[in-house]
Design a protein that fits this description.
Length: 215
């Protein structure tokens, strides 16, 4: 049985990516949730990850401690189900996934991940607005491609959709203004039952943290 070690659903956008991909691929896994930003985290993560970070996928003795590497391993476990079958589309999907993985620093910094919040009024600076425009360009290009054979960025759900899932939630939390094509993808993604499950988990965490402690 696979085990996925993740951070709090209310905090860890990096954990969301492999988590939602494993859900879409119907891969069974046990979930281990560690509290981020706590004094005990460094000790708790040590048995799982040499890097000291989440997410981590455990498969027997194998440990994979990086989100995109976990997604690639899941693709191999499912015989290539996590990327488009067409080589050209697969290359493009890998390119936009890697771009999301390595970039969009201003967007991440200016609109921190908060899947529970709504209607946050936080204006973006020039770099943040440029990041939003780039996301929209990627989504628009994918959504308007002739011959697309499904509702996701490359037709069927892929690693590219998993990589952009935290951005979808950021746009929801901060009320991003989107073009027609990219809003179509945004609206469809928000209704994804697996994404809704993650948000419900984040809400449960928030509720638990607000419960009064017994003496």
């Amino acid at each position: 049985m696979l085990r996925l070690v993740i951070g709090n659903k209310s905090l860890s956008s990096w954990s969301l990516r492999p988590w939602i991909l494993l859900k879409h691929l119907d891969l069974d896994f046990d979930e281990v949730v560690l509290d981020l930003d706590t004094p005990g985290f460094a000790t708790e993560i040590r048995p799982y990850s040499p890097a000291g970070r989440v997410p981590v996928l455990l498969d027997g003795e194998l440990r994979i401690w990086e989100s995109l590497a976990i997604c690639e391993f899941a693709d191999e476990l499912t015989g290539g189900a996590a990327w488009p079958t067409d080589p050209a589309l697969r290359a493009e999907a890998r390119a936009v996934s890697a771009e999301m993985h390595a970039g969009f620093v201003a967007l991440r910094a200016e609109w921190p991940f908060d899947p529970v919040a709504r209607d946050l009024q936080v204006p973006l600076g020039d770099a943040g607005r440029a990041d939003v425009r780039r996301v929209e360009h990627i989504w628009n290009d994918c959504m308007t491609r002739p011959g697309r054979n499904g509702p996701w960025l490359f037709g069927q759900y892929s690693i590219a959709d998993a990589m952009f899932a935290p951005v979808v939630l950021r746009f929801l939390s901060y009320g991003a203004s989107l073009s027609k094509a990219s809003k179509s993808y945004f609206d469809f993604s928000i209704e994804d039952p697996h994404l809704q499950e993650w948000v419900a988990g984040a809400r449960a965490e928030a509720a638990a943290s607000n419960e009064p402690q017994s003496a």
